[in-house]
C-alpha cells in the first residue's frame, strides 16, 4: 500500500531519528568503554612485578616473553598493561611476519598473579579487567583488526595454567615441549575463562572437547593436545634449543615477503570471522595490495609458479 504524503516524511524522519540515536549510542558506548579501560589500566598498574619482553629480529620473527619466573610467569597488574603496549608495538612493526610467545625460565604462564586478583575481586573491577584482557588478546590474535597481522605460535614449555592456557589460544599455532601441560583450571577457582579463552578454544578444538577441558579441568599433555588439535607439534626436551627449533618451525610459514605473509593471515582471519560477503571484500582488498607488487613481479620474472 502506498504511503500518503504525510506518512512518507514521517517515516523518513523516524528512520533518520533512529539512525542518529544509534550513532549517538555507539559513540556514547565507545567513550564509556574507553573510560573504563583507562580506569582499570590505572588500577592494574598499582600492582607491579615481572615484565613482558619483546625482541624484534631481522628475520621478521619477534619473540615475546612473559617474564615473572618468581611467580611461574603469572601476570601481575602491570604486566597486563605491558602486554597491551607490546601488542601495539607489533601492530606498527612493518617488517614483521611472525611472532613467538613464550614464558621465561622454562615455564609458560600460570595465569593471573593472585595479589592483583584479590585487589580487584569485586564484580565491577573483574568485568573491566575481563574486557581489557579480552580486547588485548583479541588484538594479539588479529593484531588490531588485520592492521599488520603476523603468524603467531605459542611455545609451551612447562605449565600453561588458567590465563596462561587462554594465552595459548590467542596464537595461531601451539608447539608443546614433551613435558608441557596445558590446563584450564578456572573451574577450580570458581570461575570461567575471562580473557576470551573459552570462545577461542571452541573454535580450535570444537565444543565437545572444549567442554571436557573446561568442565573436566582435564590436563592436556602433548599427545592429547595433538589428538584434539590444540597442539600443532611436539618438541622433545633435550633435542636442541627449543626457541631455535620453534623459529625454524615457524619460518616454514613466514618465508617470503612480509606484505604477502600478512595478506595470507588477513584473508584466513576474515574467512574465519566474517560473513562471506565481508570476507570476500577483505580478500579482494588484500589481493589488490599484492597484485603487481614487488614479490608478484619477481615471481613472474622468474616463472616460479610450479617450482
Would you give an account of this structure?
The protein is 55% helix and 13% strand. The protein is of the alpha/beta class. Strand 1 (51-56) and strand 2 (61-67) form a beta hairpin. The longest helix is centred in the N-terminal third of the chain and has 38 residues, at 7-44. The radius of gyration is 22 Å and the shape is globular. This is Ethylmalonyl-CoA decarboxylase. One of its GO terms (biological process) is fatty acid beta-oxidation. It catalyses: (2R)-ethylmalonyl-CoA + H(+) = butanoyl-CoA + CO2; (2S)-ethylmalonyl-CoA + H(+) = butanoyl-CoA + CO2; (S)-methylmalonyl-CoA + H(+) = propanoyl-CoA + CO2.
Helix content: 40-55%
Sheet of most strands:
6 strands, mixed
Q: Please report the number of helical segments.
A: 12
SSE ordering: HEEHEHHEEHEEHHHEHHHH
Spatial order of the strands forming the largest sheet? 1-2-3-4-6-8
Low-pLDDT residue intervals, each spanning 5 or more residues: 20-29
The oligomerization state is single chain
> How many β-strands, per DSSP?
8
What fraction strand?
5-15%
> What structural class is derived from the secondary structure elements?
alpha/beta
From the N-terminal CA to the C-terminal CA, the straight-line distance is: 64 Å
Quote the average pLDDT: 89
Structural shape = globular
Our Rg estimate from Cα atoms comes to 22 Å
Subcellular location: Cytoplasm, Cytosol
GO biological process, one term: fatty acid beta-oxidation
Main location: cytoplasm
Catalytic activity: (2R)-ethylmalonyl-CoA + H(+) = butanoyl-CoA + CO2; (2S)-ethylmalonyl-CoA + H(+) = butanoyl-CoA + CO2; (S)-methylmalonyl-CoA + H(+) = propanoyl-CoA + CO2
